[in-house]
Each structure stands twice: as structure tokens, then as C-alpha cells.
Amino acid sequence: MKRNKGSALVYIVWGYIIWSLVPVIIAVIYSFNDGRSRTVWQGFSLRWWFTDPYASVFYNPETRNAIINSLILAFVTLLVVTPLGITLAIGSQRIRGRGSNVVQGLTSAPLITPEIVVGAALLITFTRLFTAVPLGFAAQLLGNVTFSLASVVVIVRARLVSIGPSFEEAARDLGATRWQALRFVLLPMLWPSVMASLVVVFATVIDDFVITSFLSSGVNSETVPLRIYSSVKGGATPALNALATLLVLASFTVLIIGLLGLSTWRKRHGEQGGLRAALADVTQIES
Asked: Given 3.30.420.40, 1.10.3720.10, 3.90.1570.10, 3.50.50.60, which CATH number is that of 60-286?
């Protein structure tokens, strides 16, 4: 009986994987279609990737601009959100008293707020209150930082809960200052959560449509999701599939890099190995 239940769970897992990946695989395959149809296969070709001088992804200036805008927006958001999210997570975790639960709940609020509400609210904010921030890249950056910051806070704070305060206390007992304990003990042990945060934020920002569209100023700030949406309305070709494929490849590339970075960290240190190395650094500094 238990074996049958286990087999059923395996079938459910594989069913979910197939249901999730098959549409993506079909879309990727039709990006290499020789004809203009996105549903009828007419032979293999790189027409919509490179060879068509007018409609291929890398020849079309509007498409290239959307790709560049998406990558810049995603990477700049990473640079802003990651250190800010780590700081907020550590700070909210160290608050004691009745206000600690309130602070932790508020820092996680954007996760449960509908994205369309956040986008509409930010549009009103930038057009009515903070008019010095123009719509376009600046507003899109602030909007994505606002929305994705909670993800970093939650991920890092979960890691902080699993680590506990004992490691920092051990470093302080060895003579480290509060800053040294944070730098040489806590931050290295947060590395797995930092890698996870990078992957989540990049995947969230690069394929974001709602907030980015609300805060867009036109073609100059158009990203890949906005380009895909406008192409669907205007009569899509397999170039749209190629553009969507690039979006998928970018997300999977960052995911693989994150997994490799996490695997390398664990092979070199491990949970306790990382602690021993950090405490050794503290001891050397104090001596």
C-alpha cells in the first residue's frame, strides 16, 4: 500500500514537471521555424534569431533595446536590493520586544500585496508626490526595488533564524567586536541565502510586467516582457518565441550560476566548516 502511494506521488511530480515544461519547450522549438507561423512547422531556420535583416531578434533595434533595458534593470536592481535586503533582515531580526513581530510583518508585506496594487500605487506616487523621479528607468528601478526587497528580507531572515545567535556570541567571547563578528562570522554564513536571493530577484525583475509597464515612459524604457506583450497585440512572428526563449535562458543561466556558487561554497566549507574558518579569522585578527 505504501509503495502504491509512493508511486502515485512520483507520477504527480512528473505530471507537474511535464505540464510546466512542455509549453515552454514548444515555444522554444517554434523560435527556429522557417516560416512566419507560430503553430505550423515549416522547417528549421535561424531566421528569427540572426539571418533575417529586418525581423530577427538581434537585428531589430527595438528588440535589442528591450533586451538591454531588461538586463540593465535586473542587474542594477540586484546591486541595490541585495545589500539593502541583508541589512533590513539583520536589523529586523535583532529588534526585541513587542514591536519585533510588527516590524517583521511590515517588511514582508509586499510579498502578500497584489503586484497590480503596488504598480498603481507607485505610479500615483511618482506622478503626484515625488514628481522629481521621472517615469522610465528611474521609476522602474525604484518600483522593482520596492517590490522585490521583501523577498531578500524573508530569505535572509530565514537563514538567520536557522543560524541562531550562538555563533556571533562565540566570536564575541573570543574577543571580536560586534562589527568583526558580523563581518567574519555572520555574513559568510549568510552566503547561501544571498545566492538564493540573487536568483529570486533576477528572475522576478527580468520577467516583471505589471510594475514595469505602469512605470514605463514609452519605447525607451521598454523591457522584454513589454515587448512581448506589444508584439502579441500587433501580430506575432516566431521572433516573439526567440525573444521569450532569451528570457527563459537568462533566468536559467542565473539559476545555474547560483546553484554552482552554492555547491562550491558547501564543498569548500560546509555549515560547520564555514564557522570554523570564520572563527579562525577572528582569532587571527585579535592575536
From this structure: 1.10.3720.10
